[in-house]
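Q: What residues go here?
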């Protein structure tokens, strides 16, 4: 507000309105852009540098004062602003003067341009404003800093000043172009917009001073270049702003792309390649920390290390933490330190991928343990069935056989005693019925034919004992692990019993087995009444089928509809489903 008011009140200026806007922009532009830069990149030095430049530009208002001392101080301060502008351009975007060339350019600017300009102020009692649109209508206020009056020496120094400015501007432009050509992809991306705007400013500055030297009478062209030069100088910090916004937009697009690619669960090597492209860093490497051991391992590392690797020349190391502990280390181009949006995106994706890998591993372990546990339960049940069947066969059944033999002997001894003989015959018949019922029960628990002769023979025994027509179709069916054979057998038996129960004796049942070298599949179809799966309650029989097949990592399908029969089908992988599961062989 002070700059605008003072400049508008200066009746000696040629363009007070435009100059007021320029001087306000010299303060507000760098300060607000610096604050925004500081908020987005709090660790960067460039934001504070922009803010400091805004306060340096505030002193420029003195050149609009009619007081000779203040006006002369403003003229002197204009050279400080020029030097600070070069410092901004050379320090973009890191906030540091990297390399010897940048420091030499500033040294030459101070020695060959600033010093002659200061000496000129000491030699001329009357000096015009030196800025491109800072001229006075007639005479400017008196130069209070003049010690003597030597116009000829001042003019010689003024010519030296212009040549020095041209040389410094060309050297700065050459350094910027060299950085663009030789920089890495992240460096070129970071400086592209800001450097382009700065190059326009430098070209116009060279043109402005060159015209004053070689074509002093081309006043109209000089006026056009002067206005363009003033606009280009104001555009410098806005170029820095657009560079920051472009970096944020690029990081957002890269994060979106990387997030979509990370959903495919890439390996560590694939993740490195995936991050290198959007970051433009072919040297990028990832090293992951093992939370259990604290060791580090990369995609190409054959052995674990106790600490992350040392970055090579031109590289840096960023460690991404999770829950306060190091999780992922990223070896990357140093320039990415000044492009933190991309580095944070890479770290987030790497961390997400690492967490996904850990979750996948834990999930797979838990799922495998669940499958093994279910299979062990099924196998334990089958073992208990076999044990119970053997106990019945070797114990109760043998005792009943012995009783039947004893009754036969007793019947022989009771020959001629009709009543006693009839009574013994009746008891013998009851014992035989009990034996038959016991055989059926023991065979239902675990038929010996299944363990002795295999799946096809056991299913055909169902066909022989059933009053319902059952067709068994099997081709290429051999012997399999005991838990696989028992699972398929009892699934088929459950489906046959359900068909008989709901369809009666007239229902036709077809059992089909198939071995395709990868899995053993079964299908039990009937032409019974069927049912509505959405309305029928889940029975224990169908749930048993799902549990048995699911325990062996198989799948089950039940297709039915009212009046259209039922098809129960499933498949079980042919592999060692349970550790230490023995294959069944005939005995």
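A:
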């Amino acid at each position: 507000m002070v700059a605008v008011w003072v400049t508008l009140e200066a009746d000696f200026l040629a363009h007070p309105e435009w100059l007021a806007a320029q001087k306000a922009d010299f303060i507000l532009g760098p300060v607000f852009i610096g604050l925004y830069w500081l908020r987005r990149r709090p660790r960067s030095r460039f934001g504070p540098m922009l803010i400091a430049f805004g306060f340096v530009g505030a002193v420029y208002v003195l050149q609009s004062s009619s007081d000779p001392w203040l006006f002369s101080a403003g003229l002197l301060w204009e050279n400080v602003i020029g030097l600070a502008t070069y410092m901004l351009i050379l320090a973009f975007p890191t906030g540091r003067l990297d390399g010897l060339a940048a420091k030499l350019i500033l040294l030459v600017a101070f020695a060959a341009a600033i010093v002659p300009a200061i000496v000129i102020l000491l030699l001329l009692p009357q000096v015009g404003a030196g800025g491109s649109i800072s001229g006075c209508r007639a005479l400017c206020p008196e130069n209070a800093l003049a010690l003597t009056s030597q116009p000829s020496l001042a003019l010689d120094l003024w010519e030296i000043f212009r040549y020095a400015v041209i040389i410094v501007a060309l050297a700065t432009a050459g350094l910027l172009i060299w950085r663009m050509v030789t920089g890495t992809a992240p460096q070129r991306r970071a400086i592209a917009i800001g450097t382009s705007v700065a190059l326009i400013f430098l070209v116009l500055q060279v043109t402005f001073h060159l015209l004053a030297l070689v074509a002093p009478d081309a006043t109209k062209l000089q006026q056009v270049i002067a206005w363009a030069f003033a606009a280009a100088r104001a555009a410098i910090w806005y170029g820095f702003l657009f560079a920051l916004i472009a970096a944020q937009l690029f990081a957002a697009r890269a994060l979106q792309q990387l997030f979509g690619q990370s959903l495919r669960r890439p390996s560590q090597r694939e993740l490195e390649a995936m991050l290198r492209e959007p970051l433009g860093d072919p040297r990028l490497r990832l090293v992951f920390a093992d939370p259990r051991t604290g060791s580090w391992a990369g995609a190409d590392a054959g052995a674990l290390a106790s600490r992350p690797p040392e970055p090579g020349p031109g590289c840096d190391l960023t460690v991404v933490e999770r829950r306060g502990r190091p999780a992922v280390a990223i070896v990357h181009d140093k320039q990415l330190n000044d492009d933190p949006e991309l580095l944070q995106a890479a770290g987030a994706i790497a961390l997400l991928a690492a967490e996904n890998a850990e979750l996948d591993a834990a999930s797979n372990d838990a799922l495998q343990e669940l499958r093994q546990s279910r299979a062990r339960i099924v196998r334990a049940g089958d073992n208990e069935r076999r044990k119970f069947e053997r106990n019945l066969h070797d114990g109760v059944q043998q005792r009943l056989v012995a009783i039947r033999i004893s009754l036969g002997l007793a019947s022989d001894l009771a020959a001629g005693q009709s009543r006693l003989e009839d009574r013994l015959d009746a008891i013998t018949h009851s014992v035989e019925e009990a034996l038959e019922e016991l055989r059926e029960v023991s065979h239902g628990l675990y038929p010996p034919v299944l363990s002795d002769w295999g799946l096809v023979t056991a299913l055909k025994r169902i066909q022989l004992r059933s009053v319902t027509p059952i067709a068994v179709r099997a081709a290429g069916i051999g012997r399999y692990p005991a838990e696989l054979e028992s699972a398929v057998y009892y699934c088929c038996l459950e489906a046959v019993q359900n068909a008989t129960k709901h369809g009666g004796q007239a229902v036709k049942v077809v059992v089909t087995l198939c071995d395709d070298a990868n899995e053993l599949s079964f299908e039990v179809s009937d032409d019974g009444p069927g049912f509505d799966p959405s309305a029928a309650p889940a029975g224990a029989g169908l749930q048993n089928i799902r549990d048995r097949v699911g325990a062996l990592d198989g799948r089950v399908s039940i297709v039915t509809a009212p009046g259209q029969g039922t098809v129960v089908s499933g498949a079980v992988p042919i592999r060692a489903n349970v550790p230490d599961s023995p294959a069944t062989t005939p005995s």
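A: Context that may help when evaluating the design: Strands lie at 285-289, 296-298, 315-322, 325-333, 470-475, 509-515, 519-526, 555-560, 566-573. Residues 576-587 have pLDDT under 50 and may be disordered.
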